[in-house]
Amino acid sequence: MAEINNNSDKITFKLKHLNKYHEIVIDPNDDRNEYKHQQLFEQLESITGVPSRYAAKMLIIKNETPSPLNNNGRIVWGIFVNSEAMVPESLMEYYPHLMFTAHIQDIFSVNTRNGQRFYLQYGVCYEHQISKRISMCYKLVEERDVPEEGCVGGVCQYQCTESYFRRLKDLVSNDEMNAKITQLVQPLFESGNSAEVYRIFRDFNIKQYLYPSCDEGYRRQLAVNGHAHQIDLYPRTRG
After folding, report:
1. In this structure, what is the dihedral angle of CA atoms 75, 80, 85, 88, given to the nearest 10 degrees?
2. Is there a domain that residue 3 lies in?
3. Origin, by domain of life (predicted)?
């Protein structure tokens, strides 16, 4: 369970977004929503400027056994779905148990401590089971696991720039474009026709944001193998 402050049953921690720290407060006595993680989505809206309805899910990634020899043992402690992003007839609406992993029922089960610091990583994805549109997906990675430079454990610092984030924000907020994309790709996702989905994303010139390649991964392959295959998508998105 989460560590509780003597003066309050709230959890307070820091979240770093674009080189600025923000305070996050989760109150177990806030009864506005059954699922307390919705408070985090609300605060992410204030921090990022992305309306909560455009953010589909959030992952919390932690390393419970860090050491100087191996600091790569990260696991996903929680996958939380934003109920505000759900649309009528979404899969999550009819199967709410899919909103959580079997052992994570609420955000207080993630063992988050007061004063802990997290790094906000973000990306976009087409969520055909939740929002049926392109949505923002967040990852909270414990700051001690984030290197000063480069990429590791699901964190790509080359994507963590203001210009790149602004482009993602524009994508998820473009209702007109999303309506066109949903009409084309939702039936394909439901039928499993991924090849045609990728073609449509390329036609809209957005595949590079949904499936970004990483410069760090390219350099690592090059150092190990002497060669590396790189999809020429990410350089066009660099901020």
Report:
1. 110
2. no
3. Eukaryota
